Every structure is written in structure tokens, then in C-alpha cells.
Amino acid sequence: MQSAAMLANPAPDWAAGSTTAIDGAHLARMTFGDRSLEREVLQLFNRQASTLVARMRSSDAKGTAALVHTLKGSALNIGAHRVVSACIAMEADPATIDHLADAVDEARARIAEMLWLGD
Questions:
Q1: Per-domain residue ranges for the chain?
Q2: C-alpha dist (Å) from residue 57 to 40, 64, 91, 102
Q3: How far is C-alpha 42 from the geometric centre of its chain's CA atoms?
Q4: Which of 41, 35, 39, 56 is nearest to 103 (CA)?
Q5: What is the 3-state secondary structure (H, E, C) of the chain?
Q6: What is the pLDDT of residues 94-113, one digit of tens each?
Q7: Are 110 and 22 in contact (CB under 8 A)?
Q8: Nearest 10 degrees: CA dihedral of 108, 91, 17, 107?
Q9: Residue 71 CB: number of other CB atoms within 10 A?
Q10: Which of 6, 37, 56, 90 could bond to 31 as cystine, CB 3.0-4.6 Å?
């Protein structure tokens, strides 16, 4: 059983390496266990993420930095820790956009499963 301190402030998966595309426990904490809200934020991320990556591919450095920041915040909110890690890498090296796109695709595939299966 986890301590109250760990439950209140758990270490983010992206710091240690996540094994899933979406951290369901993190998502539940962020949405206060409201399944309807979970679905809503997952759908929003799903729509937003691919648009942001496409815009990054055609933006200048300043625009790309803003888009990466936006995507990172959205990914943090839903527990898409691999996307967060890829955003951090892209902030340091914009040439890693393909890695970020792969992480987004993986997260979107998991979101589709979660929405279809009701995870």
C-alpha cells in the first residue's frame, strides 16, 4: 500500500520512464475520477496533438517552441509521459520532431483504445 505522501505527490512516470502511453492513475487524479471529464480531456488531447505536431513541422523556431510548450502542458494533464519526455527532448533539439510525432501517435492509439473500451 502506498503512503499518503506518495499518493498526494507521486513521482511522475516521465521522470523514471513510463511503460504505458497514458497513465490512467494520473488521468484519474487530474479529473477527480470523473469518467466523463476523462473522456472529454482525452478527446481534446487527441484532436489537439496531431494538429500541434503538424504546425510544428511548418513553424519557425519561436513558433515551434510555443507549440511544444502547449503540447507538453496538455500531455502532462492527461499523463502522456512519453509525449512529455519527447517534448522536453524537442525543446533541447528541434530535430527530434519525428520522435515526438511517434510518441503522439502512440498516445493517440492508446486514447482510441481507452475511449473504445471504456478503460
A1: 22-117
A2: 27, 8, 14, 14
A3: 9
A4: 56
A5: CCCHHHHHCCCCHHHHCCCCCCCHHHHHHHCCCCHHHHHHHHHHHHHHHHHHHHHHHHCCHHHHHHHHHHHHHHHHHHCCHHHHHHHHHHHHCHHHHHHHHHHHHHHHHHHHHHHHHCC
A6: 999 999 999 999 999 999 99
A7: yes
A8: 0
A9: 27
A10: 37
> Which three cell numbers mark 16?
523514471
The Cα 56–Cα 25 span in angstroms is: 30
Type of residue numbered 41 = V
The CATH number of the domain covering residues in 22-117: 1.20.120.160
Give the start-end residues of each E strand in 21-62: none
Question: What nine digits make up the cell of 20?
Answer: 504505458
d(CA 3, CA 68): 34
